[in-house]
Design goal:
Blueprint (H helix, E strand, L loop, with lengths): L1 H24 L7 H26 L5 H28 L12 H22 L3
Helix pairs in contact: 1-2, 2-3, 3-4
């Protein structure tokens, strides 16, 4: 499981760097200031959670079963949170109405919060 978690963190980080560069250069000319800020928020949270997964995959004080649960919350949280923000930002420059995708953002954020809470609970259970 640790290899899978670390690999996912590396992939999130890899794409976070690519999307960040893409947003800073190519999208700067296309997106409005507000849409670019939304895009940058998606990148920032993706990168935070890439580092989170790298940490989760390397720490030994959390049981594997708990790591799997936390990984799933974080994985799907990034998918829905950052993914919906990327979609909203990118389609803001088009005539397509994708605002309905915005309902996924708080859902993804909630999954991320649950993943962090689960980590806290697991660490709190450990005896020093």
């Amino acid at each position: 499981m640790d290899k899978k978690i670390i690999s996912a963190g590396a992939v999130f980080g890899f794409f976070g760097i690519i999307f960040g560069a893409f947003g800073a250069h190519a999208m700067k000319k296309i997106l409005s200031v507000d849409s670019l800020a939304v895009f940058e928020t998606a990148v920032r949270y993706q990168m935070y959670h890439a580092l989170f997964l790298l940490f989760l995959g390397t720490v030994n004080i959390i049981p594997q079963k708990a790591k799997k649960i936390i990984f799933n919350f974080i994985h799907w949280g990034v998918f829905f949170f950052s993914g919906s923000l990327y979609t909203l930002a990118l389609f803001s420059a088009s005539d397509m109405d994708v605002k309905f995708i915005g309902i996924l953002t708080p859902f993804g954020g909630t999954l991320l919060i649950i993943g962090w809470i689960w980590l806290f609970v697991e660490i709190s259970r450990k005896k020093s």
